[in-house]
Amino acid sequence: MKIFLDTANLESIKKFNDMGLLDGITTNPSLMSKEGGNPKDAMEEITKIIQGDVSLEVVSTDYSGMLEEGKRLREYGDNVVVKVPMTPDGLKACKSFSSQGIPVNVTLIFSANQALLAAKSGAKYVSPFIGRLDDIGQDGMNLIKEIKEIFSNYTFETQILVASVRHPLHVIDAAKIGADVVTLPPGVLDKMLQHPLTKIGLDNFLADWEKLKQKNPDTKI
Ligand code: G3P
Q1: Burial of 16 (0-12, 13-18, 19+ CB in 10 A)
Q2: Any residues with Cβ below 6 Å from ligand 1, and which?
Q3: How high is the mean pLDDT of the chain?
Q4: Left (φ > 0), alpha (ψ -120 to 50) or beta: where does 32 sit?
Q5: Of 91, 90, 85, 173, nearest in space to 130 by CA
Q6: Ligand 1 probe mutation, 3, 54, 132, most atoms within 8 A of CB
Q7: Is residue 198 situated within a structural domain?
Q8: How far is the CA of 150 from the centre of ligand 1 (A)?
Q9: Domain tally for the chain?
Q10: Which of helix, strand or coil describes residue 215?
Q11: Residue 206 forms part of a structural domain
């Protein structure tokens, strides 16, 4: 399963990219706004740092506006995936971009039917928002199961990009189902790195080594 980071924060992107964990990045207007800087600078930097797919989202809601914005977004790099909303105009733009060989991520997917339609329009990725479904008392992960079953019945090349991930258990469940990609807020990836027994184990190793060094002051590794 590929791991994308769901952020426009350059520090987090560099941190996890240096660990070799990132296959790509997803952004959206809210994530850009959270960082507060000039989005142009952020988009330039992110597409330089990351070799894999970087989803940059349009903000026009009409077809021709999406086409113009998508073309401008693609100027940031060949790794740019144009992110469009799951609307009739969004799907029309998706069809147009994909027929020109421009990859598209269809976002704000909340039902299996929406995922099916986005795949038919030629999307490279569909982004079901599981956390937001959980928030309203629906089972977000069940949507991933449904989409996986539907896509595997046919020959769609569209990848399931699990979005709106809230905690590490979401990641394990998505991997068990066989989702293609999860996009993670930096905080979730941080939590996945940690286990209390790892910290206790390391503290013990270091304390024992200190004892040994007191008896053998010249010892070095
Ligand atoms: O990429 C967007 C998606 O992951 C949104 O997440 O936490 O705002 O529901 P959230």
Answers
A1: buried
A2: 6, 26, 28, 129, 131-132, 163-164, 183
A3: 97
A4: alpha
A5: 173
A6: 132
A7: no
A8: 23
A9: 1
A10: helix
A11: no
Strand bridging mode 80-85 / 53-57: parallel
What pLDDT, in 10s, does the model give residues 86-124? Answer: 999 999 999 999 999 999 999 999 999 999 999 999 999
- CA 131 to ligand 1: nearest atom: 9
Domain that holds residue 7: 2-190
Averaged pLDDT for residues 170-191: 98
From the alpha carbon of 55, which atom of ligand 1 is closest?
A: 1
| Cβ(83)–Cβ(57) below 8 Å | yes
Residues 141-158 have a mean pLDDT of: 96
Residue 218 in any domain: the answer is no
pTM more than 0.70: yes
Render pLDDT for 39-73 as a digit per residue (tens, 0 to 9). 999 999 999 999 999 999 999 999 999 999 999 99
186-204: pLDDT as tens digits: 999 999 999 999 999 999 9
In a domain, 86, yes or no: yes
Nearest-CA residue for ligand 1 atom 5 is 164
If you ran DSSP here, which 8-state letter would residue 125 be given? E
So which residues are the catalytic ones? 83
Q: Is 174's pLDDT higher than 90?
A: yes
Residue minimizing CA distance to atom 3 of ligand 1:
164
CATH classification of the domain holding 79: 3.20.20.70
